[in-house]
Specification:
By secondary structure, the protein is an alpha+beta fold. The chain has helices spanning about 15-20, 30-40, 50-55, 90-100, 130-150, 160-165, 195-200, 205-215, 235-250, 260-265, 320-335, 365-395; strands spanning about 5-10, 60, 60-65, 70-75, 75-80, 105-110, 125, 155, 170-180, 220-225, 270-280, 290-300, 305-310, 340, 355-365. The protein has two domains: about 5-170, Aminopeptidase (3-Layer(aba) Sandwich); about 220-335, Aminopeptidase, CATH 3.40.630.
């Protein structure tokens, strides 16, 4: 059977029912509703309007594979004019191109915009052999497209192992390190409670965590979890105010707008978890509860993803409570296997998040730069591995094997 392909510049050109039929995962960021919300609310460009694309720097380039005129696979591809919102940092590569009088942008990325979370990057409903065939075909199609349209290269960010293995021969492999939590005790069983989780800690580390959490038991800050239909439009407004204010404190602006989050509340509420921090009436100036901080998570059947945080003011340990401890507790209570709290943050180590290697795959058009980047990522991989080993030494667990 012959495979053919075409590039599509809006998710709305793809039939939603076909997308759902091909999708084999409840991974939230691969859902049609998630990507549609990005386009619908102008977080990424879905049209050929040059001014719109130049302002946003993202443009949809979905790769649709067909076999005997029937859709068999979809890859979320985006054209980029910069490297913001990717979290696999290649600014130094772009600078090197510029110094040599070459253009690094535009480029193509095979990823989910603004989402540094490992997950599926190829939508198809098929067996292992065909998955490999479709993945390899996508890689060849992207390479040919880059060569024909003068892109500097294409980059597959945060793929799962099956896709990484399928396209590894055609690309350069790059590693990075994140910190994730796993619902697996040192004895090999699921945790039964947060206290059960802390039993795996050394005495000093356990006391530190309990001391941090005790601040909120004796304070006038109430922590509340909301999900599904319990999340109101007003809740999202409060969250967004905190989210943008936190960016503004650093002289930045969040990539995503209020309408994006409100649309997700309408279309994906069952996969959302909102952790609120509210001042109780006794401590609030206006005599009622005042929302002071929010952490917005997304979830599927096995995983929790911590994605967005914001606060009106700084409160001791409030970020740790809302973004880490509440997430761990939720996973334990709902029997989830894994918690990805987001990028960076060595402070996660002492709270039980393990350093894990994440991956990206890169095809570079320019032969000399391809060789130079290949040497760079190989040396970098050794540094990342060493960093992972050193970070593991500082995990809080008793009798842990650091090898």
């Amino acid at each position: 059977m012959t495979i053919s392909h075409k590039f599509i510049h809006s998710i709305h050109t793809i039939d939603e029912e076909i997308w759902k039929q091909l999708l084999q995962t409840d991974y939230p960021f691969q859902q049609y509703q998630w990507l549609a919300a990005l386009e619908d609310n102008n977080c990424i460009s879905s049209v050929t309007n040059k001014a719109d694309f130049e302002r946003l720097g993202w443009r949809a380039h979905y790769l649709l594979l067909e076999e005997d005129c029937q859709p068999v696979a979809i890859a979320p591809i985006f054209e980029k004019l910069h490297s913001y919102g990717e979290y696999v940092f290649d600014w130094s590569w772009a600078d090197a191109y510029h110094r040599h009088g070459l253009e690094y942008y535009p480029k193509l990325v095979w990823t989910i915009p603004f989402t540094p979370s490992t997950g599926p990057r190829l939508i198809c409903q098929t067996n292992t052999a065909n998955f490999k065939r479709y993945a390899e075909y996508c890689a060849r199609a992207l390479t040919e497209y880059c060569q024909a349209h003068d892109y500097s290269g294409w980059h597959c960010l945060y793929p799962q192992d099956d896709l990484k293995a399928a396209i590894k021969r055609q690309t350069l492999s790059r590693n990075s390190c994140q910190f994730h939590w796993y619902n697996l005790s040192l004895s090999g069983h699921r945790y039964q409670s947060f206290d059960h989780f802390l039993e795996d800690f050394t005495s000093r580390k356990r006391k530190n965590v309990r001391k941090e959490r005790a601040r909120f038991q004796s304070s006038q800050i109430e922590i509340k979890r909301l999900s599904g239909a319990d999340i109101s439009a007003r809740d999202i407004e409060n969250f967004y105010r905190c989210y943008q204010l936190t960016y503004m404190k650093r002289g930045m602006q969040g990539y995503l707008n209020l309408n994006f989050f409100q649309q997700l509340r309408e279309t994906m509420a069952d996969q959302m978890l909102l952790v609120q921090a509210n001042l109780t009436p006794d401590s609030s100036d206006n005599g009622g509860q005042q929302n002071i901080a929010n952490a917005l998570y997304f979830k599927d059947e096995r995983n929790l993803y911590g994605r967005y945080w914001g606060c009106l003011d700084e409160y001791d340990s409030l970020h740790f409570e809302c973004c880490y401890y509440q997430g761990i507790e939720y996973c334990i209570e709902n029997n989830l296997e894994h918690f990805d709290p987001g990028t960076q943050g060595e402070h996660k180590i002492s709270r039980g998040f393990r350093p894990v290697i994440c991956h990206s795959q890169h095809w570079i058009a320019h032969p000399q730069f391809r060789d130079a980047i290949d040497r760079f990522v190989q040396e970098e991989a050794m540094d990342i591995k060493h960093y992972q080993q050193q970070a593991s030494i500082h995990l809080p667990f008793k009798n842990i094997d650091h090898d």
